[in-house]
Write a structure and sequence with these properties.
Shape: globular
Number of domains: 2
Distance between the termini: 26 Å
Order of helices and strands: HHEHEHEHEHEEEEEHHEEEHHEHHHEHH
Strand order of the largest sheet: 1-9-8-5-4-2-3
CATH topology of the largest domain: Aspartate Aminotransferase, domain 2
Radius of gyration: 23 Å
Mean pLDDT: 94
Number of helices: 15
Helix content: 25-40%
CATH architecture of the largest domain: 3-Layer(aba) Sandwich
């Protein structure tokens, strides 16, 4: 297949053929223009936010949805709506974006970590090691768009009087046991950040089937005020920012989204089903091609669920590939070689969350809060990085194909097939690649 591009050969793929994300089409432009023409840009009862919430709840199979200004704030109001606060503990996976744990911290509670399975999702077998008298909830992450194994998590939660809050930031439309994620217990947070399969630049959505939880979340979202939910108050088109004054009855912030965000998200939501189906088809074809290569393991669709392939993480095994390199050396050599062939290849995360200075130093809000409200000896033990070997292996032995700017969901079939061809070329020359890696140290 020719000389490796990393050694001076011709790349398999023209990098400029990648489509960028999100796709901004005429429907998106018209939706935002309509907001500008209307002149209503924000408000707790504004029409675009109200419509988006109804449409997203229906799409996700939930009774209720609230638009927030980020996926992180959606998770935070989910934590608060479950009644979790000072000194309480929430079990989270060691592998995720830090927003998962920060949503707990920002609500005054304490994240406690468990290791993950090979797919990056929380390992239910580790839950008992993280349980304490302070534990109030479990927050599994449907990482990369594939559902966590919810049945044993829910069983453990029920047996121990815990709530399950789903971090579905990357999983719009994913299912578990035929049911959309985000609807299994206390509620969930989704993200609308630019790279997500449903994008609005920034934004988030809290979903729940619990009316009381919805009211609590809405108060947290609105300065702790008893503000009527979107769709339940009176909206005056001529004076959208005017209304009654309110008092704060608890701690909250301004976590609402805005009208341009909602309008853009509505336009994107109308295309999400077809785009997801195409991404799933492309992922299946690429996985079949990579399965033919020794030492390459593409992402697996969970036996009890469906994945929306927000990210496409590939495991690499130097032993099965027949090369004399460490997993880390092999990972980096393959990553550089594929990038030279024109592929977008990223790491996404580089360290398990417990190893972050935030948790190693437990400074919190300057004087140790909220960690100081917990059992510091228990937390120091739990935060020891060596307790999470699978999260470490995952990061050292895998790469993510495609990128935040050019994700799988945006690409056409020819670009996806180019990745398969680039992988085959690199594998054909993996002996040379290993020698180059050893020379470069």
């Amino acid at each position: 297949m020719g000389k490796l591009a990393a050694l001076g050969g011709t790349p398999v793929l023209d990098r400029e053929l990648h489509a960028r994300w999100p796709v901004v089409d005429d429907d998106c432009r018209k939706a935002v223009a309509t907001v500008l023409e209307r002149g209503v840009l924000s408000g707790s009862d504004a029409p675009e936010a109200r419509a988006f919430q109804e449409e997203f709840a229906a799409f996700q199979g939930a009774k209720h949805a609230l638009l927030t200004h980020s996926g992180t704030s959606a998770l935070q109001v989910a934590v608060g709506a479950a009644g979790i606060g000072e000194g309480d503990e929430v079990i989270v996976p060691a592998y995720s974006f830090v927003a998962t744990a920060l949503a707990v911290v920002c609500q005054g509670a304490i994240p406690v970590f468990v290791d993950v399975r090979e797919d990056g999702n929380l390992d239910p077998a580790g839950l008992s090691t993280a349980l304490s008298k302070r534990t109030r909830a479990i927050m599994p992450v449907h990482v990369h768009g594939a559902p966590a194994d919810l049945a044993p998590i829910l069983e453990f939660a029920q047996a121990n009087g815990l709530r399950v809050i789903e971090d579905a930031a990357q999983a719009h439309g994913a299912t578990y046991d035929g049911r959309p994620v985000g609807t299994f217990d206390a509620g969930a947070g989704f993200s609308l950040q630019s790279s997500k399969n449903l994008s609005a630049g920034e934004g988030g959505v809290f979903v729940t089937n619990d009316e009381d939880a919805l009211d609590r979340a809405n108060k947290i979202r609105n300065f702790g005020q008893n503000l009527a939910r979107v769709g339940t108050g009176k909206w005056n088109a001529e004076r959208p920012l005017d209304g009654n004054w309110h008092v704060s009855n608890g701690v909250g912030s301004m976590y609402r989204g805005n009208e341009m965000m909602a309008a853009f998200a509505r336009a994107q939501l109308r295309r999400l089903g077809e785009r997801t189906a195409r991404a799933q088809e492309h992922a299946a074809r690429l996985s079949r091609a990579l399965d033919e290569l020794p030492g390459v393991t593409p992402p697996r669709v969970p036996a009890r669920g469906t994945s929306v392939f927000h990210k496409f993480r590939v495991w690499l095994d130097p032993v099965k590939a027949g090369v004399d390199l460490t997993p880390l050396q092999f990972r980096d050599a393959v990553r550089r070689a594929l990038q030279a062939e024109g592929c977008e290849v990223v790491m996404w995360q580089g360290e398990p969350m417990p190893s972050f200075p935030l948790f190693q130093e437990m400074r919190g809000y300057g004087k140790g809060f909220p960690f100081s409200a917990g059992d510091l000896d228990f937390l120091r033990t739990n935060y020891a990085p060596e307790r999470f070997p699978m999260a470490r292996r995952l990061l050292d032995s895998s790469i993510v194909l495609f990128s935040q700017t050019c994700p799988l969901i945006a690409q056409n079939a020819s670009v996806v097939d180019g990745y398969a061809a680039a992988f085959r070329k690199v594998w054909e020359h993996r002996g040379e690649l290993a020698e180059l890696a050893r020379v470069e140290g």
